[in-house]
Structure formats: structure tokens, C-alpha cells
Automatic annotation (TrEMBL):
<feature type="transmembrane region" description="Helical">
    <location>
        <begin position="56"/>
        <end position="76"/>
    </location>
</feature>
<feature type="transmembrane region" description="Helical">
    <location>
        <begin position="404"/>
        <end position="424"/>
    </location>
</feature>
<feature type="transmembrane region" description="Helical">
    <location>
        <begin position="153"/>
        <end position="176"/>
    </location>
</feature>
<feature type="transmembrane region" description="Helical">
    <location>
        <begin position="372"/>
        <end position="392"/>
    </location>
</feature>
<keyword id="KW-0813">Transport</keyword>
<dbReference type="Pfam" id="PF07690">
    <property type="entry name" value="MFS_1"/>
</dbReference>
<keyword id="KW-1003">Cell membrane</keyword>
<feature type="transmembrane region" description="Helical">
    <location>
        <begin position="308"/>
        <end position="327"/>
    </location>
</feature>
<protein>
    <submittedName>
        <fullName>MFS transporter</fullName>
    </submittedName>
</protein>
<dbReference type="InterPro" id="IPR020846">
    <property type="entry name" value="MFS_dom"/>
</dbReference>
<feature type="transmembrane region" description="Helical">
    <location>
        <begin position="112"/>
        <end position="132"/>
    </location>
</feature>
<feature type="transmembrane region" description="Helical">
    <location>
        <begin position="277"/>
        <end position="296"/>
    </location>
</feature>
<feature type="transmembrane region" description="Helical">
    <location>
        <begin position="188"/>
        <end position="209"/>
    </location>
</feature>
<keyword id="KW-1133">Transmembrane helix</keyword>
<feature type="transmembrane region" description="Helical">
    <location>
        <begin position="88"/>
        <end position="106"/>
    </location>
</feature>
<feature type="domain" description="Major facilitator superfamily (MFS) profile">
    <location>
        <begin position="15"/>
        <end position="428"/>
    </location>
</feature>
<keyword id="KW-0472">Membrane</keyword>
Length: 454
């Protein structure tokens, strides 16, 4: 297999920035949809339904993207393990940008009737496939370029794209609303941020095309370890580690989407908070999330992931118990506190979940295996969370059911994390002995001479 990039000198810093830029743009598109689903799409695409049913229908189209993500993860994971990380990440960025741009051009229900929500769902599937290929691939690309002792830090750069994309989406959403006015924004102005995706993705492609292929994938090619069916090969890690890794990360996704998406709908429609106040508060919390990821990833590189991850899981559980009671007071000050608390606590576990998942698999099947865990967690957690929360709110008439739902899923993840770190101390790479000494050399796995990441 030809390898034209092999002679290029890897640039870890440039690669980390490129993965951050790419994931920011992809999450911009994804969160733009989530914000529009919470505030706009019920009126544009489901006007014949009641407000509650329209919101539930809009969140159902949000969930469709999560259902499509495993398909993207499987397809892009397969080719990422066979032909390389770089090419697949370029295609995933294109898919997301094209899908988002076309969403901004769909006629609404009043114009074409039934076909409006059909087209919305179809393009949401395209978005989901694109993001399904992005999530694991960007983490691998950055992590596999990492200098020694900075594996978690570099794996955290693509994770920063999540809050950065949220901030960008909300600022563009608010800015456009301010520019055209509320009535015009609801009627047609919401389309502008989606069409803007075309420009942003073009910029992202220029950045992404300049990075070199992953050194780990080069080693896989050199040792002729490319396998025909990498997903099937990745399952040899074993059910206990696969299932516990999935359980450990599922709560973070659920909590994040309730915080980022459901809160906008619930706060504005049920608690009468000002829409712009909520979006600005969530945006401010996302800035905290973004800024603290490098802090926590450095802690993980120096002191280990185990204590930090389990402590973060406990903190998320406790804050979920307090989150909606604080919002329900109707106090803007306590609402800001509730949202800011999420922005400070979510990154403790979010920042290292990418490296934990990646370290579950050897290099020659890492893209496929990581995509499987990441997208399964996204469906079980984030994809269904806003819809489940809306259904619980409608059936119970209060946020208590949503609180219990979040607490329960956090408890499941906490148990999964404790069991995972007992099975594999500090999330050492698959096949490694149960030593926790970060300096202890491990046997070669999938063509890489490993040193146990903390």
C-alpha cells in the first residue's frame, strides 16, 4: 500500500489544532440543529401539532441523527482502519457541512406539507453519518500524534470541539436573531446560521488537508497489520471491557444534551425564562467547559485518570440532583449557578473519555472499535435524553422525573467506571498487564510499543 505522506514530519501541535477546528465546525452544525429543534422547528415543520407534541416531534428528529451516527461510525471506522484516518475525516467534515447547508434551504411545512419533515429527517441522517465518522477519528488523529507523556492532553483537543461548537452555534444563532428580529428569525432568519455552515466547512477543510497521517497508522502499514474486518477484530477485546467502557461514558452524553438542548425548551416554555438569557447562560457554561478541559487532561497525564474520572462521575450525579430544583426556583441567579455548575463538572469526565475509549483497542482496529463504543454511548445517552426528558415532563407535569432519570443514568455510569478501573487499572491499553506504573513498558499491541497512559 502506497504511503505518500510517510516522509513528512509529523506536527503534533498542528494536528491537535486541526482536529479541534474540525470538531468545532462539526459540533457547530450539530448543536445548531439542537438549538433550532428546541426553539424553532416545532413551528416550522410540525405546526399542526400541539406545542408539547410539536416539541417532542422536533426532539425526535434530533434523535434520528444519533441513530444514524453508528452507521457513520461503522463505515468511517472501517475505512479509517484500512486506508487511514486523514481521508475519512475530510469526508466526514464534508458530509456534515453539506447536510447543514441543505437544512437551511428546506421549505417549511406550510410550503410543501408532509415532505418538509421528511427532508428534515433525511438531512439529519446525513448529519449523523458525518458526525459518526468524526468523533472517534479526530480523537485518534490527535492522540496518535501526541508527544510522550501528553496522550490525554492531545486526546482532549478534539473534546474541546464540543463546547467550542456549542459556543459558536449559540453566538451565531443569537447574533442572527438580534440582526433580523424575533418574528423574522422565526419565519426565515433561522436558516442563515445553517447556510453559513458552507463557508465554515470550507475553512475547516483547508486546515484539515494540511495535517499528516497518524504515525500509529503508518506503523500498522509497515507491519502489514491491516485487517479485512476491523470491527469484528476489535470485539476480541472482550465483552466485559467493552460493556464497562460503554457504561462508564453513557451518563456524560445524557447529562450534556439535557443541559445543552432540553434546558432551552423547558426553561423558555415552562419556566418563562427569557430565551436569549438561557442561550447566553448555556454559552457561558460552555466557555467554562472549553477552558477547563486542558487543565483536567494535564491532571490525567500527571496523576492518572482513575481517581479523576470516578470523582467527576460522583460530582455529575450530585449536581444532577440539584440542577432542576435550582432552575425551578425561577431565579435567574440560581439558574446561572445551575448552568455554570454543569459547565465546570461535565469536562472532568468528558475530557478523558475519548482517550479511555481509544485505549480500549489496539491501533489496527482502534477507529472501528472506538466508533462502536462512542456512538452506542451517544444513542443510549445523548440522542434519547431530550426526547425522554420531554416525555417525562409531559407525563409527570414537573421536572422531578427528569431529575430521577439523570440521577439513575449517572449512578449506572459510576458503577461502570468503578468496575472498569478495577478490571483495567487506570484504563491501560487493551492487552496490557494490570500495572499502574505509567513508566512501565507494555508489550506491543497492534503494532505499537505502548507506555501505559495514566
Amino acid at each position: 500500500m502506497s504511503n505518500p505522506e510517510k516522509t513528512e514530519r509529523p506536527a503534533p501541535g498542528r494536528t491537535a489544532v486541526a482536529t479541534l477546528a474540525g470538531t468545532t465546525l462539526e459540533w457547530y452544525d450539530f448543536f445548531l440543529y439542537g438549538t433550532a429543534a428546541a426553539l424553532i422547528f416545532d413551528k416550522q415543520f410540525f405546526p399542526s401539532l400541539s406545542p408539547a407534541a410539536g416539541t417532542l416531534a422536533a426532539f425526535s428528529t434530533l434523535a434520528v441523527g444519533f441513530v444514524a451516527r453508528p452507521l457513520g461510525g461503522l463505515v468511517f471506522g472501517h475505512f479509517g482502519d484500512r486506508i487511514g484516518r486523514k481521508a475519512t475525516l475530510v469526508v466526514s467534515l464534508l458530509l456534515m457541512g453539506i447536510g447543514s447547508t441543505l437544512i437551511g434551504l428546506i421549505p417549511n411545512y406550510d410550503s410543501i406539507g408532509f415532505w418538509a419533515p421528511v427532508l428534515l429527517v433525511a438531512l439529519r441522517v446525513v448529519q449523523g453519518i458525518g458526525l459518526g465518522g468524526e468523533g472517534a477519528g479526530a480523537t485518534l488523529m490527535s492522540m496518535e500524534h501526541a508527544p510522550e507523556g501528553k496522550r490525554n492532553l492531545y486526546a482532549g483537543f478534539p473534546q474541546m470541539g464540543t463546547p467550542a461548537g456549542l459556543v459558536l452555534a449559540n453566538l451565531v444563532f443569537l447574533g442572527t436573531n438580534k440582526l433580523v428580529g424575533d418574528s423574522a428569525f422565526t419565519a426565515w432568519g433561522w436558516r442563515i446560521p445553517f447556510v453559513l455552515s458552507f463557508v465554515l466547512v470550507a475553512v475547516g477543510l483547508v486546515i484539515r488537508l494540511r495535517v499528516t497521517e497518524s504515525p500509529s497508522f503508518h506503523k500498522v502499514l509497515e507491519k502489514d497489520e491491516v485487517v479485512r474486518f476491523p470491527l469484528a477484530e476489535s470485539l476480541k477485546v472482550g465483552f466485559p471491557r467493552l460493556s464497562l467502557t460503554l457504561l462508564a461514558v453513557v451518563a456524560n452524553s445524557a447529562v450534556a444534551y439535557v443541559f445543552m438542548v432540553f434546558t432551552l425548551s423547558y426553561g423558555s416554555k415552562d419556566l418563562d425564562y427569557d430565551k436569549q438569557f438561557l442561550i447566553l447562560s448555556v454559552t457561558g457554561a460552555a466557555v467554562l467547559w472549553f477552558a477547563t478541559i486542558p487543565v483536567w487532561t494535564r491532571v490525567a497525564d500527571r496523576h492518572g485518570r482513575r481517581t479523576m474520572f470516578i470523582g467527576g462521575s460522583l460530582a455529575i450525579l450530585a449536581w444532577c440532583a440539584a440542577f432542576f430544583p435550582l432552575l425551578d426556583t425561577g431565579s435567574t441567579g440560581l439558574a446561572v449557578l445551575a448552568l455554570a455548575g454543569m459547565g465546570l463538572i461535565i469536562p472532568v469526565t468528558h475530557c478523558v473519555q475519548g482517550s479511555i475509549i481509544a485505549d480500549t483497542f489496539p491501533a489496527h482496529v482502534r477507529y472501528s472499535g472506538s466508533s462502536l463504543i462512542l456512538q452506542a454511548g451517544a444513542i443510549l445517552g445523548g440522542g434519547l435524553a431530550p426526547m425522554i426528558s420531554t416525555a417525562l415532563l409531559n407525563s409527570g407535569g414537573s421536572s422531578a422525573g427528569v431529575t430521577w432519570y439523570l440521577v439513575a443514568i449517572c449512578a449506572v455510569s459510576l458503577v461502570g467506571a468503578v468496575a472498569l478501573f478495577r478490571l483495567v487499572p487506570d484504563g491501560a491499553p487493551a492487552g496490557a498487564p494490570g500495572a499502574t506504573d505509567a513508566a512501565a513498558p507494555l508489550p506491543e499491541i497492534g503494532g505499537e510499543a505502548w507506555t501505559a497512559p495514566r
